[in-house]
Amino acid sequence: MPLLEVKNLTVYYGTVLALDDVSFHIDKGEIVAILGPNGAGKSTALKTICGLVQLNGRNSGQITSEGKDITGLQPYELVKKGICLVPEGRRVFGTMSVLENLQMGAFTLDKNQKLKDRLENVFDLFPKLKERQQQRAGTLSSGEQQVLAIGRALMLEPKLLLIDEPSIGLSPNFVQLVFEKLKQINSSGTSILLVEQNARTALKRSHRGYIFETGKIRKKDRCANLLEDKEVNEALFYS
Fold first, then answer.
1. Which of 78, 124, 177, 231 is such that its CA lies 20 to 30 A from the CA of 105?
2. What is the pLDDT of residue 198?
3. Interstrand relation of 68-69 and 60-65 (parallel, antiparallel or unpaired)
4. Prediction pTM value
5. Contacts of 14 (CB under 8 A, 6+ apart)
6. Alpha-carbon distance 126 to 172, whole Å?
7. DSSP characters for 69-120?
8. Which residues 6+ apart lie within 8 Å of 131 measured at CB?
9. Quick check: 50 and 78 in contact, CB under 8 A?
10. What residue spans of the chain are helical by DSSP H?
11. Cβ atoms of residues 178 and 167 within 8 Å
């Protein structure tokens, strides 16, 4: 039974068809990459899973988690079910400290010891955040803000982490760091659904991939096969 399954997802923005009868899944323990050019519908898929785009009117489809229908649930309800989003652009609370940002990520926790334990887990994964915990988040570098956004989502120990364009605006060193940490997070038991423009890096670090084009899935396969696919190489413009 898939950890998450999306069936026949169709989404409009006004009169524009953003997703056209799209279906995909992610199994427990996987990193799955959604790739494709701008405007292909990748981020729309994540936003719909997270309840930020509602399936009503002309929008249709079904989303299940471990066989249970979660279609139409609000974002806060999905967070409680272990599905957390790291949005594009990081969106940290710039005037709040690193520590306060992490604490905001644990808003559903009701026990101080749980909060302390999860903070330590995040600090073990991202030691720089521990060093900077009293610093205002808005003064961090782009790369540090990205790891803070990931750390904030991890405060709820999600079973599925949805990550939208984590490498945008980052230096090559931080891109490598972020993807190394995602592999580490996955090795600890968290499944990851990743939307990413950096196709080669994403395919090298993921198990399976879906190639989106103009709201449809053009190809799907194991990432090792997609890396060797000439058509995929041409479509995603990497060498």
1. 177
2. 87
3. antiparallel
4. 0.92
5. none
6. 18
7. E-TT--HHHHHHTTEEEE-TT----TTSBHHHHHHHHTTT---HHHHHHHHH
8. none
9. yes
10. 42-49, 75-80, 98-105, 112-125, 127-131, 142-154, 172-187, 199-205, 223-227, 230-236
11. yes
Amino acid at the residue 85 = L
Between CA 98 and CA 89 the distance in angstroms is 17
**Residue 104 to residue 152: CA distance in whole angstroms:** 7
**Per-residue pLDDT in tens (0 to 9) along the chain, 239 residues:** 899 999 999 999 989 999 999 999 999 999 999 999 888 999 999 999 999 999 998 999 999 999 999 998 999 899 989 999 998 877 888 899 999 999 988 877 766 768 888 999 999 999 999 999 999 999 999 989 999 999 999 998 899 999 999 988 888 888 999 999 999 999 999 999 999 988 889 999 999 999 999 999 999 999 999 999 988 887 775 44
Structure token pair of residue 194: 């990743």
User: 162 near 193, Cβ under 8 Å?
Assistant: yes
Residues 212 and 40: beta-carbon distance below 8 Å: yes
Q: Is 203 exposed, middle or buried (0-12, 13-18, 19+ CB in 10 A)?
A: buried
Question: Does residue 22 sit in helix, strand or coil?
Answer: strand
Pairing state of beta strands 216-222 and 83-86?
A: unpaired
What are the Cα distances from residue 125, in Å, to 19, 105, 185, 188?
36, 16, 9, 11
